[in-house]
Design a protein that fits this description.
The protein is an alpha/beta fold. About 30% of the residues lie in helices and about 20% in strands. It is built from five helices and nine strands, in the order E-H-E-H-E-H-H-E-H-E-E-E-E-E. The strands form two sheets. It has a six-stranded parallel β-sheet with strand order 1-9-2-5-4-3. The protein has a three-stranded antiparallel β-sheet with strand order 6-7-8, with no helix packed on it. The longest helix is centred in the middle third of the chain and has 14 residues. The two termini are about 15 Å apart.
């Protein structure tokens, strides 16, 4: 289901035409012409602040609701970045699935904080508790490298 595009193969209007969440796997400066109309959302600070209202052991029950409340208050299109908090293994969030569900409500793009290689998105390095590997073909996303 997922696709990988080279940045050079799309024009600056192309991201607006894609129906799936766009996962940018390149430097933020390179995507600036493609995301100039996007509202930037830095998730880590906002979400961690919201989660402080809950007991640590119960935060995983509220993280998606709080994320959705934040999204609801931002006009689309949205460029989501700085969202490493979502990879915390204690929260048990499938980050790509969350973005797919979010894109059904509002058009989003994501600045991926990991790597894109061999048809997979990775976050962190093997051996770390927050290490994740996602097969792009298993998700309805558009990756731009």
């Amino acid at each position: 289901m997922g696709f990988v595009f080279k940045l050079s193969s799309i024009n600056e209007e192309k991201p607006a035409e894609l129906m799936t969440p766009i996962v940018f796997c390149i430097d933020e400066d390179e995507i600036a012409p493609y995301t100039k109309e996007y509202n930037v959302l830095k998730v880590n600070g906002l979400l961690s602040e919201k989660l402080l209202n809950y007991q640590p052991k119960k935060r995983n029950l509220y993280i998606i609701d709080e994320f959705n409340k934040i999204i609801d208050n931002i006009c689309e299109p949205i460029l989501i970045k700085d969202f490493e908090i979502l990879f915390d293994p204690g929260f048990q969030v499938d980050v790509l699935k969350l973005f797919i569900m979010t894109n059904r409500k509002k058009r989003i793009a994501v600045l991926w904080p990991g790597k894109c290689r061999y048809g997979k998105l990775t976050f962190a390095e093997p051996g770390y508790p927050d290490y994740k590997v996602y097969k792009i073909k298993d998700y309805d996303i558009s990756c731009v490298t």
